[in-house]
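Tokens in:
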């Protein structure tokens, strides 16, 4: 597998299945522009009549998504810019929530922070063994505020609390499956992709109206997320300016 050398978000549709792929050289981390592109592609796929089901994936094999870009976090100078950055994750999650098409997440590697939130927001996540997860935000002085509702909705408050509080501890893919974050875990990427393709093909031949109605049921009682996630973004946007967070981020960046 060649190393990831560029940042992109691409989308292509074949036989009713739209595959959205994102990539970033820094472990598929998310700068603001990447978040904006991803949110826009999800929105467009939701309105695309040829799209019956969506597969959300990332490039490479080691990491699904490392969360927020530390390079960009370290450059935030005021609360307004901080809130704007974290609203990027809010927009991705809300666009997944509002999308009338079912979204399958392909989790081929580790998930950190916002990456766990994206996996949790997907309607059905299929992972490979070794796709460990960690909510590292508290360790750098912030907290998983924006992605928290999506994670709590999927795995419950007790498991979400455990992840959020023990922010340096990795949980393995079997833990994630047991808690409900992953619907399936496969022993290798080949088996994972076979399962994803089988499910996507089945859904592409299912009734779109029934799937749209089913998704409404899955996401009931989340109508307030438009405001809730933006309010959470403001909390993160303030905390990212703290000396604790700036020092923690600099320390991590200096170790790379």
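Residues out:
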């Amino acid at each position: 597998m060649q190393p990831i050398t560029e940042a992109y978000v691409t989308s292509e549709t074949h036989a009713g299945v739209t595959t959205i792929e994102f990539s970033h050289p820094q472990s598929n981390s998310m700068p603001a522009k990447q978040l904006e592109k991803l949110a826009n592609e999800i929105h467009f796929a939701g309105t695309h009549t040829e799209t019956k089901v969506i597969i959300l994936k990332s490039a490479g094999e080691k990491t699904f998504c490392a969360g927020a870009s530390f390079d960009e976090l370290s450059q935030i100078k005021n609360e307004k810019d901080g809130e704007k950055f974290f609203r990027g994750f809010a927009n991705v999650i809300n666009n997944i929530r509002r999308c009338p098409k079912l979204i399958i997440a392909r989790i081929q590697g580790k998930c950190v922070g916002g990456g766990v939130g994206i996996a949790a927001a997907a309607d059905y996540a299929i992972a490979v063994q070794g796709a460990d997860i960690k909510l590292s935000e508290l360790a750098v002085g912030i907290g998983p505020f924006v992605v928290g509702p999506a994670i709590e909705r999927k795995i419950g408050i007790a498991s979400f609390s455990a992840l959020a509080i023990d922010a340096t501890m990795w949980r393995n893919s079997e833990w994630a499956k047991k808690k409900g974050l992953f619907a399936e875990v496969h022993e290798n990427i080949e088996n994972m992709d076979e399962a994803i393709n089988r499910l996507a093909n089945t859904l592409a031949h299912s009734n779109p109206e029934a799937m749209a109605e089913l998704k409404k049921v899955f996401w009931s009682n989340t109508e307030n997320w438009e405001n809730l996630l933006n309010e959470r973004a403001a909390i993160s946007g303030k905390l990212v300016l703290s000396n604790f967070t700036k020092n923690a981020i600099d320390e991590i960046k200096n170790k790379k």
